[in-house]
């Protein structure tokens, strides 16, 4: 499945409306276990979100201060309407992102390559309260390796 991990980089501009669940845990010691836990919990509840764009694409923004990280599992919605109990909504306004395609097995390499590309192109990672890095998981049944995109807000 080498075509999944293309490591191609590009710049995209997108707005995201998301509904999902989060987990906060020590960083880095509790990861990736905390991320796997919230993805599993969310997987059993994602049908509660009405009007999702695609139930097989999970958006995982995260915030980290290198002591703790809050990691999300969300679906994209066109309109934030009803929010199921125990979930929350997030709106990221139109933001420019550096994007790389990799896989769940090559995500570490994906991060190395995207930050290398950001520096090479003269961008800087944007740190603001209205944006967040996002991991995008394209779930498929009965496969060992799935497509993942990493989105890093840039300026």
Automatic annotation (TrEMBL):
InterPro entries: AraC_E-bd (IPR010499), Cass2 (IPR029441), Reg_factor_effector_dom_sf (IPR011256)
Stretches assigned to the AraC effector-binding domain: 7-155
Protein name: Transcriptional regulator YdeE
């Amino acid at each position: 499945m080498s075509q999944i991990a293309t490591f191609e980089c590009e710049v995209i501009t997108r707005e995201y409306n998301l509904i999902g669940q989060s987990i906060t845990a020590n960083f880095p010691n509790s990861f990736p276990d905390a991320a796997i836990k919230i993805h599993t919990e969310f997987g059993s509840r994602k049908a509660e979100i009405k009007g999702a764009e695609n139930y097989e694409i999970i958006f995982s923004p995260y915030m980290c201060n290198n002591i703790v990280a809050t990691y999300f599992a969300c679906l994209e919605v066109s309109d934030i309407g009803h929010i199921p109990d125990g979930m929350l909504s997030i709106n990221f306004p139109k933001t420019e992102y550096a994007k790389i395609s990799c896989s769940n097995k090559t995500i570490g390499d994906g991060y190395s390559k995207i930050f290398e590309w950001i520096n090479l192109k003269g961008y800087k990672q944007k740190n603001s309260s209205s944006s967040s890095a996002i991991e995008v998981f394209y779930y498929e049944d009965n496969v060992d390796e799935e497509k993942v995109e990493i989105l890093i807000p840039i300026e």
